Amino acid sequence: MRLTWIHPEDLIGHELRQARQDGRAVEAIARRWHDAGGHDAPPMAGASPEPAPERLRRLAEDLLDELATIPSPLADREPTGLDAVISACPDWPGAPLAAPGPDLAGRLRGAWAGRAAGCVLGKPVEKIPREGIRAIAEATGNWPIRGWFTARGLPDDVAERWPWNRRSAPTSLAENIDGTPEDDDLNFPMLALALLERYGTGFGTDDVAQMWLDELPAGRIFTAERVALRNLLVGLASPETAVYRNPFREWIGALIRADVYGWVNPGDPARAAVLAHRDAALSHTANGVYGAMFAAALAAMSLTANGPEEVLAGALRVVPPESRLAVAVREAADLARAEGDFERVLDALHARHADLHWVHSVNNAAAVAAALVHGAGDFSASVTSVVSAGWDTDSDGATVGSVAGGLLGADGIPDQWTAPLHNRVASTLTGFNGATFDTLAARTHALVQETSG
Predict the structure, then answer these.
(1) SUPFAM superfamilies per the record (predicted)?
(2) CA-CA distance, 74 to 176, in Å (whole number)?
């Protein structure tokens, strides 16, 4: 067995790509690595099939440490520290933008159920590119996507060319769904709920670290989270956990952890973003942190806003406007407003972000924004649009489902998306296996009342 996401010889390719995106001059280091026989980053998995020779492993370690000393020219406009982030946001809200109404309980149930439904929709096609998702959907009479994916009627040649996510398909195809299967996109929000119940809203990043050590199975976390957990286990503390040999620090991991921080602060994107920052700082920097702040603010706004445009406008106020993530989100939203054919929107987004990994925060935040605008508050249109985008389909489906569900409330989500989930979720987290959306929403609501009382 070869573990993923931790070997220096596999990390170096990802770090070189991240460095180029940061505008750092690293071609001399890249030549040294390739001239020594080093490989590029594995395109999909987190590890190459065979371990590298010891000389390459040591070289990779040295080069990772050398790369860490090269400053990014983008650092001034993409800070990580909270005070600097707030200073970089000229529109940072000084007070809540709205107060929750009497429908808050129903909207919280909708947010939890919507997150689960969007996640399950995207699970079987995670890691499959756009063209594969379309081929599968067309071959089974589900294009444009309007329902769960299915293997029924799928021709063998299509199935062979575009294989399902093997871990997810047994529990997330139309013919297999029986409750909500376990997923990190649901485990992390539940962990955040437990964190707030244990420590309150005054929690710190060290408390997040303790929750991870207490509760997270290492085999069920990936990329930046796995690196940060490794860093904790070798004795590092935040903020070093986020940066030490962690080329995934601007990927999507922190974004998927943030919804609950918004749900406990309805109508208050700034407070939601502050809580999300404390969580994200354990494993991410810059755009990786902004992804979490953006998602938390989306969740906060979804419980009080009248539509996705109002949600997006509030969420963008907590992201530095010159950052790559904010620019990408604005561009994506503008594209979706101007172009009625969502496939053309996706063509432009994929061309614009072709250099990013499929689980980077920037391109996925752009897909979320475009789908929310295109969906215009319709749950089905929103989640199916974002899953058709490819990239991180289950995570993006979860985020868009959360926002759309929060806007509509539980009763506004079509039964086709909620009935097969049977109001329950599977989890290996202590105390959460079999939890119902009703119970999760009630616990979240109790935290809202506690912090506002």
Answers:
(1) ADP-ribosylglycohydrolase
(2) 46
